[in-house]
Amino acid sequence: MPSKEVTSQAPKTKKNASAHPSGDKRFKVLDITMKRNQYRQDSLIEVLHKAQEAFGYLEEDVLLYVARGLKLPLSRVYGVATFYHLFTMKPSGAHTCVVCLGTACYVKGGGEIVKAVENELGISPGETTPDGQVSLMAARCIGACGIAPAAVFDGTVASKQTPEVVVKRLKEYQKTDAD
């Protein structure tokens, strides 16, 4: 009996069905993270961490993409993203300042540091200056009680801060970047 050759009718150049329509390659990073975790719903926090690392913050279309990828309701993804302080829904400034408000830091002046920044720069924790240069955040504790009050400037911990020193540094960020 003569053999009959079977050919596939599928197109030879098929794009990844899960690729984001915008073509943004950062979504591929999310795909890889979700695949590595076998699209398990309990990997949501890890996927959100990777999303924030890739995008800088968690915007709505990123949350929707994660929700679809992990087959979770958007409300659950949004709830997790807004519950944990380490996730942010807005882009941060060029520079960040995290003021520790843990017990030791608060007792030694952490609260006064936040008040001084609010008064001088006109922003509260979780906000960014209108020029986009400085974001202020507050942390419950950064684990640096021995050097209280502590602040973290662009990822670097600074010890025994005063309101004047913090405000001066943040204003220098604004001046330097405005030039």
What does this structure look like?
This protein folds into two domains: 26-83; 95-178, Glutaredoxin, CATH 3.40.30.10. 44% of the residues lie in helices and 11% in strands. It has six helices and five strands, in the order H-H-H-H-E-H-E-E-E-E-H. A hairpin with a 2-residue loop joins strand 4 (151-153) and strand 5 (156-158). Helix 1 (26-36) runs antiparallel to helix 2 (44-55), helix 1 (26-36) runs parallel beside helix 3 (60-70) and helix 3 (60-70) packs across helix 4.
Tell me the distance between the termini. 83 Å
Question: Percent of residues in helical segments?
Answer: 40-55%
Shape: elongated
Q: Can you name the CATH architecture of the largest domain?
A: 3-Layer(aba) Sandwich
Q: In sequence order, what are the helices and strands, one letter per element?
A: HHHHEHEEEEH
Q: Which range does the strand content fall in? A: 5-15%
Compute the number of structural domains.
Answer: 2
Number of strands: 5
| Global structural class | alpha+beta
The CATH homologous superfamily name of the largest domain equals: Glutaredoxin
Total of DSSP H or I helical runs spanning 4+ residues: 6
> Uncertain runs with pLDDT below 50, 5 residues or more?
4-17
**Residue-averaged pLDDT:** 88
- What does the main sheet amount to? 5 strands, mixed
Radius of gyration: 23 Å
CATH fold-level name of the largest domain: Glutaredoxin
Strand arrangement within the widest β-sheet reads 2-3-1-4-5
CATH class category label of the largest domain: Alpha Beta
Topology:
Layout lengths: L25 H11 L7 H12 L4 H11 L3 H10 L11 E6 L2 H19 L5 E2 L5 E6 L11 E3 L2 E3 L4 H16 L1
Parallel strand pairs: 1-3
Antiparallel strand pairs: 1-4, 2-3, 4-5
